Amino acid sequence: MAAIAMRKYCNKFCKNYNSPLVRFHIDILTVPRSLIFHARFLLLGEIQMAEVENNPEKEMITQFHMNAAAGNAAKLSTMLNYSTSLINKMDEKGWTALMYASRNGHFEVTQLLLEKGCDTSISNKSGQTAVDIAEFWGHKHIADLLANPKSDVRSKMWCDGPEENENYFGRTLLNRLSVKRTNSNWIKNKQIQPTTVYIVFSNLSPLVISAKCEDSGKTGIHLCRLQYEDVEQLLVKPEVTSVFLGAELQSETCAKFALGSALAEDDGLIAWFAVNAEFIAPENFRVKYPDCCFLQPLILYLLNFSKEEAGVVAQARSVLAWHSRYKFCPTCGGSTEVQDSGYKKICLQKNCPSLQGIHNTCYPRVDPVVMMLVIHPDGNNCLLGRQKRFPPGMFSCLAGFIEPGETIEDAVRREVAEETAVKVGNVQYVSSQPWPMPSSLMIGCQAIAVTTEIIVDQKEIVDARWFSRQQITEILTHENHPISIPPQQTIAHTLIKKWLVKNAHL
Ligand SMILES: [Zn+2]
């Protein structure tokens, strides 16, 4: 009854007062205090909130949360226009507007809050995020939206920028949980749990099995997911490196609600570790996993994983490659010790300068590479080149490593000029892709040429040409075309496709 009375009050004031600011102040100030308390209690289900105090800021936050809980997107939007800082404000239980919207299954309000840039990672005092709450109360559509907001919602703040693209190697099934890396007790406990997953690499190639997909019937490559008992003998060897990769995203929600605290001895989180056993034979695992093998040659098969497993491979292979290539301290040549569950190496020489201050030699390296689609000044042609090592007939975007002290834009201009003598003006970032060969980050850009004559340098590339939109369309649609572009899992392919689609109306 109190909730109905409260709604009547709100409706009355909404009709009578047109100023939004006046309206929500009046709502909160004129309704009897006891009514507000009871109405809130009912509107928000079993979620109790602190009673309104004589504090304008608190009152506004309470009103904001009530609107979120009631699914009132219009009013929420008005309040945000007045005060953007409301968006992540918490009440005494640590609840935000996003949590109340998630609790009550309000999709439109959730979408609005995401668009306005709310923080989805905030936890309340029970350690639950908004996605945990949505999952718990069975609002799957809200949980899906919160778990992957980047593909569904684009912030209005970035309306002029590129849309975020989900590239191969960029998606994963793990939360890296970097906060756990220094918790040696938690790590040790996870290492021996039967649910923990180990993936093994030999000479940086992952151990895999082939399996048929039940839905498509196609045979794909999957990581061989081993258990502690499979790798127990390996882990005690000093030359074997073990890296904590994270916990399965799907296990997180169940863990929090099942046991209340992520600090519990068995918190339900399914941890993943990568182990690099140099040149170990697959026979070691064949009794239990008869069809397993190490991928050879790696490059041919690396693009055949599922999108989720590809992200795990990218993370694991890059960190393990760092361990295998940097066995000694790069500063003094001394021995090192692995820390942070495989994410840090410190020098054991007492006087080594790397022990003072911050040194990038202590952490896994990432090498930035620019990859650019250069567009002809007429907008209807793009510049593609051929490296000697490419398969016959394949052309791709130009690319090159960013040099120290260089911006992304300048690296694009320099590389294009060096390889083809074409001068480039405006450069725009489009998307990025981790590339674990061994640890690059491909920074995909579009660049507008200001000159068109091509002079191939013959050192880095052997051929470069302007391709019309018609030619690219034919290359993409004719299976036996003599010219090809890189496969769809690559950012080069994404850059070419994006240009093609964007200019399709020309
Ligand atoms: Zn050193």
From TrEMBL:
One GO-annotated biological process of the protein: NADP+ catabolic process
Reactions mediated catalytically: NAD(+) + H2O = beta-nicotinamide D-ribonucleotide + AMP + 2 H(+); NADH + H2O = reduced beta-nicotinamide D-ribonucleotide + AMP + 2 H(+); a 5'-end NAD(+)-phospho-ribonucleoside in mRNA + H2O = a 5'-end phospho-adenosine-phospho-ribonucleoside in mRNA + beta-nicotinamide D-ribonucleotide + 2 H(+); NADPH + H2O = reduced beta-nicotinamide D-ribonucleotide + adenosine 2',5'-bisphosphate + 2 H(+)
Annotated ranges, domain Nudix hydrolase: 364-489
A Pfam family per the record: NUDIX
SMART domains the UniProt entry points to: ANK (SM00248)
Major localisation: cytoplasm
Subcellular compartments: Cytoplasmic granule
ANK repeat positions: 93-125
InterPro entries according to UniProt: Ankyrin_rpt (IPR002110), Ankyrin_rpt-contain_sf (IPR036770), NAD-cap_RNA_hydrolase_NudC (IPR050241), NADH_PPase-like_N (IPR015375), NudC-like_C (IPR049734), NUDIX_hydrolase-like_dom_sf (IPR015797), NUDIX_hydrolase_dom (IPR000086)
EC number: 3.6.1.22
Secretion signal span: none
Alphabetized PROSITE patterns for the sequence: ANK_REP_REGION, ANK_REPEAT, NUDIX
GO molecular function, one term: NADH pyrophosphatase activity
Keyword annotations of the record: ANK repeat, Hydrolase, Magnesium, Metal-binding, NAD, NADP
Family: Belongs to the Nudix hydrolase family. NudC subfamily.
Function: mRNA decapping enzyme that specifically removes the nicotinamide adenine dinucleotide (NAD) cap from a subset of mRNAs by hydrolyzing the diphosphate linkage to produce nicotinamide mononucleotide (NMN) and 5' monophosphate mRNA. The NAD-cap is present at the 5'-end of some RNAs; in contrast to the canonical N7 methylguanosine (m7G) cap, the NAD cap promotes mRNA decay. Preferentially acts on NAD-capped transcripts in response to nutrient stress. Also acts on free nicotinamide adenine dinucleotide molecules: hydrolyzes NAD(H) into NMN(H) and AMP, and NADPH into NMNH and 2',5'-ADP.
Subunit structure: Homodimer. Homodimerization is essential for its catalytic activity and protein stability. Interacts (via ANK repeats) with BLMH.
Protein name: NAD-capped RNA hydrolase NUDT12
